[in-house]
Amino acid sequence: MKRRTFVLAGVGTLASPWAAADVDFGRVAPRALVFPKDHGSHPDFRTEWWYITGWTRDRDGVERGVQVTFFRSRPGVAEGERSAFAPVQILFAHAALADPALQRLRHDQRAARAAFGLAAAATDTTNVVIDDWSLVLDGDVYRTRIPAREFALDLAFRATSAPLLQGDNGVSRKGPLVDQASYYYSRPHLAVSGSLTFEGRAHAVEGTAWLDHEWSSDYLAADARGWDWMGVDFDDGSALMAFRIRDGRGSRFWAAATLQRRDGSTQRFGVLEVVFEPLHRWRSPRTGIEYPVAMRVRAGDLDVTLEPLFDDQELDARASVGTVYWEGAVRATIAGGPAGRGYLELTGYGDPLKL
In sequence order, what are the beta bridge partners of 63? Predict the structure, then answer.
């Protein structure tokens, strides 16, 4: 469900001089996902993202969180125009480094039309580029290079298993209506290697990461305010994705989860089997928004507690893409004992999301 929140907000800024078109967007319907093609872009659909989150450890044993997301958006304007400037496809990217020594996120972002060779998303496999930012799949290894303003990432993420199909064989429902759905798969337990550079020093790192790839044309219901999402790589080799979509009262509008066991088998949980329970709230001194940054998440009989690497992992992107949300590295415990690491995303706790 990722980073998702600013995709269409930014489109309004870039696309406003162009006339809206009557566009037949791609629809989500049951089908078999085919790889490697479905690792690539799906330009018929309105919105798409490739989202990587992970934990790294340097040679001094310091753990830091990393997040890289590339978005593609088809805003439905200027589709009949021949001009290369026409914003038929728009690409966004966002990257963040969660450093406990700093107690806040280092983050940066990019946006560009898919034109002039400056930005592109290939359709045959994962190969997304905005200027000198990139995410490319080579065999079983995703590689990203992010020369941001406060930091730089040069990382490889090696897939250790086949894609994990979310929902019903890759069709993930987000509401009661058939169209409220996305194509969605994950790559848990990516093996991380490479370097993080900040404050003039490069840090060799290794670790574990999670990738989500999702695309859709109709995502949130009108009654939905925002969502909570978590992806955790457990120390025993299993993995859990869970989300809930909240309504205007903060109640569960929709929910789902998928557990991948160490042997590769999966168990899926429906709306009534997934519960997010806030344990600790943090109020941003900058925006005044309060987030439940520690959560108890139950999926069937599985009971997981998530604690943040540090509280202040808020992303304020109002100056560029118009939204504020919390997205941070979390530790997972089960029955009070260490169990794994992952990421938690909290949206719609300020203004409701408007996709």
Answer: 57
